[in-house]
Amino acid sequence: MSTGYLLSRAAVAMVLAATLTFAAACSGGGSDTGDAPPSNRFLSIGTAPPGGAFFVVGGALAEVLNAHPGAANWQVTAEATKGTQENLRRLDSGELDFALANAAISYFAARGEGAWDKEYPVRVVMTLAPNVALFIAPAKGDVATIADLRGKRVVLGPAGAGFAYFLGPILAAHGLTYDDMSPLNATQAGAVDLLADGSAAAAFLGGAVPTASITQASSLRDITYVPFDREAVERLVTDYPFFDRATIPAGTYRGLDEDFSGLNVGSMHLVTSAAVDEELVYQVTKTIYENRAEVVEKHPAGKAINPNVVVRNTGTEFHPGAIRFYREIGIWPDASDESPSETSVASGE
Known about the structure:
Layout: H1 3-27, E1 41-46, H2 53-67, E2 74-79, H3 84-93, E3 98-102, H4 103-111, E4 122-127, E5 132-138, E6 153-155, H5 164-173, E7 182-184, H6 188-196, E8 202-207, H7 212-220, E9 223-226, H8 230-239, E10 244-248, E11 260-264, E12 268-273, H9 278-290, H10 292-298, H11 320-328
Parallel strand pairs: 1-2, 1-3, 6-7, 6-8
Antiparallel strand pairs: 3-12, 4-12, 5-8, 5-9, 5-11, 10-11
Helix pairs in contact: 2-10, 6-7, 9-11
């Protein structure tokens, strides 16, 4: 084969390659053709450390959204974080698109109160399961009422978890402050250990009902379920919209022989930033709500995605995209309507 023939074939190949490259450049590489799928939109949901309900529920929401990508063709990732306080700051900085949060902490963040350095533009997408918490103590100890916590070593949540945002008002309503006791910081599992070895006289535990830590503590020894003062509860639910009454049914825990008048200390809710696009929030809200049965398959907290709970006002403004969907399906309360109230843990977790 001659050298001239080889050069001729090489020249033709170069011209053909250049022509194809030019055509692709002019057409945008085919990404704008009618047959091409839309570009993926990557979304993140902040959760909390593994081991708690936030981590599992956040993962469930991400899985359901990924199963129904819609027109946005989103890809959603659930990120383990330190919890509500980190989530709200990262929403504000744009590092997260959505997040799970405790409604009590969001309430104060939105107002720039407590330890928050400014008013954070957090907006609610949907109110989820109640966070039902209470003090428990060894039955053979000397703590029978909240007033008995004075001077005692009491576990008041993990360091930096933000429990003070709802525990502060609870203690104040019962005539106590943090300074009236010796606060201990520990996870819920750690609190069980501190109660078991006598290092703590009581612990404040809660979350989904049944709460695993309370189940474990009551299985290890006889437990006193310390009651809330009824007048204190009435003041709390009147003064703070994130508090709500919550009944724990008899038999939920070993030794709980009667219904317990508990307290929702701040529902889990799905939140975003005010800056997030209204249409995106609308589509995310619609997708989760319409596929809520799939969330239930992954975690019981999905039961709270119902008309009686998702639009409940906990004191933080809802995002316009979420409101648009709730108005569309006829569940958004008019200004004259009372906000839906969680009266039973069965409707939540």
